[in-house]
Amino acid sequence: PTLFDRIGGEAAVDAAVDLFYQKVLADERIKHFFEGVDMKRQASHQKKFLTFAFGGSAGYSGKNMRAAHKRLVEDMGLNESHFQAVMENLGATLQELGVPDDLIGEAAAIAHSTKDDVLNK
Ligand code: HEM
Q1: Residue 99 gets which letter from DSSP?
Q2: What is the pLDDT of residue 29?
Q3: Predicted ipTM?
């Protein structure tokens, strides 16, 4: 089974979204990227981010990842340090929800694989 299934499927994503969202929006290092972004897109971001991290996305497209974050890279200076901050929030979220460390490691590796696309490298 995929990591998505082992972690608990869509129910696990739903449980993680709220917590992840709170952490990201409270994090001084990155919250400014989400200012002025409408709530629906923010919620969609958290859900898509976590679904990717859990290996549950069939439709991953590097091209779309690049397009979605281009404005953030070019106009707001999105870089490695911000990416790292989001990864930390992912780890903290899953830890708080009691996900075992080996599954957290797998999720981090999957999320990390999108880095060059997100940062438009
Ligand atoms: C947009 C996924 C990293 C901030 C998006 C969208 C997706 C996505 C799928 C498009 C959402 C939509 O069209 O509704 C991911 C994944 C990431 C990642 C899989 C890494 C594994 C980041 C990071 C930041 C960030 C590091 C900032 C610290 C945003 C913002 C938007 C967005 C602000 C909305 C852009 C806008 O509405 O103009 N992301 N993201 N993302 N992402 Fe990410």
Answers
A1: -
A2: 98
A3: 0.93
* For the chain, the helix, strand and coil percentages under 3-state DSSP, each to the nearest 5: 75, 0, 25
Q: Please state, rounded to an integer, the average pLDDT across all residues of the chain.
A: 91
Q: Is 98 helix (H, G, I), strand (E, B) or coil?
A: coil
For residue 65, the SS3 value is helix
The answer, yes or no, to whether any atom of ligand 1 lies below 6 A from the CB of 20, is no
Cβ(44) to ligand 1 under 6 A?
yes
Rounded distance, CA 1 to CA 81, Å? Answer: 33
Domains and CATH numbers, the chain: 3-118 (1.10.490.10)
Q: Is the pLDDT of residue 112 over 80?
A: yes
Q: How far is the CA of 69 from the centre of ligand 1 (A)?
A: 6
Residue 73 CB–ligand 1 contact under 6 Å: no
Strand, helix or coil for residue 36: coil
Render pLDDT for 52-61 as a digit per residue (tens, 0 to 9): 888 887 666 7
